[in-house]
Protein 1
Amino acid sequence: MLDINKIFSELAEYKRIQEETQAVIDGLTDTIKKYMEEQNTDILTGTEHKATYKPVTQNRVDTKRLQVEKPEIYTAYCTPSTYKRFNFS
């Protein structure tokens, strides 16, 4: 028989490890980005790895504004989507 509580405990432990690892990754990334800003460079090359930190420009549709100002166009191009979301806490 499936011991769901054991599985929940194991999942919780791995999620905790993932959060701790992500915190370390974020800290290291922030250190590299700060160094690159101090050096005023977009590209940093090491012996085995390379980092880039460049501005990126994107054009996005302001859907809230479109819905308010042009609701007929918003409705005509709006496509509903359905999916399942898994939450664990």
Protein 2
Amino acid sequence: MVSDLDIYRSAQLMIDQHGEDASVHAAMRADELLDQGYREGADVWLRVIDAIKIMELKEAQGAVH
């Protein structure tokens, strides 16, 4: 089981590397793993996508205030 901390670290790396396209790149990786039959790995990337969305939302809300 991958920890939440590791998920958020991965999400931050994806944002740093891909900016606004971070969730797209994470989804492509999840699809690759699913195509290879690696469901557990794909599930991890789905968690990363969720974390990216949360982090982007928090950042957008912070920019407003």
Protein 3
Amino acid sequence: MLQHALDMADNTTRIMLANELRGHVREAVACSHANHVLQKCITALPPAAVQWIVDEIYSWGQEFVVQLAEHRFGCRIFQRLLEHCSSQQLNSLVSALVNNMARIAASEFGHYVMLHLLEFGTSDQRACIAAMIVDNASWVGSNFYASAVVAQCLAHSEKVQKLMVATALLSHPMQLQIMAGQKFGHLAIISMLQMPEVSSGVRVVLMGVRNHVKGSQYWKLVVKHFQ
């Protein structure tokens, strides 16, 4: 009923309804029902009218911000904020995530926040994620959740950052072999095969791929890009 009311009401009434959640954001994001109402507030109201949500989240401290990003429902709030609010509005929240990007990227729900940050964030924020991948190239590509972030980074970052990430991954051949057989990792491999600077190196690494990976449905998709 509340979601429908927020859709149908005029802007003044929407703001009045949303303000009823002031002081209750922490409870709302943890609730399987209330989180949907909070999401609707973010999508239905002008960005300036939901600044209190950003401020209230940040007021609980940086560790809470990180935990919220990793939460089953909290990650949805981050996604809606990234879709509808300006980078200036979210600067405090994103800054709280920067030092924990590797942890969040490897999280079951947190990696969705990193994917959204790559798609809706600023070039500086994408550069931070690229730098995180480079610093953790020894494992990040083969992690099931983090590999999705790697693939998204290679799809949405600037060329210099893509090359930086691809070069770092190429220095860990076993990681590439594992990625070639993964649901998300193989997408990163395909992106690398399309980069002239590293494609030949990737091909050499994958020629020695293990037999059990060769049987993977994702490996078969990678092979199509060898031509």
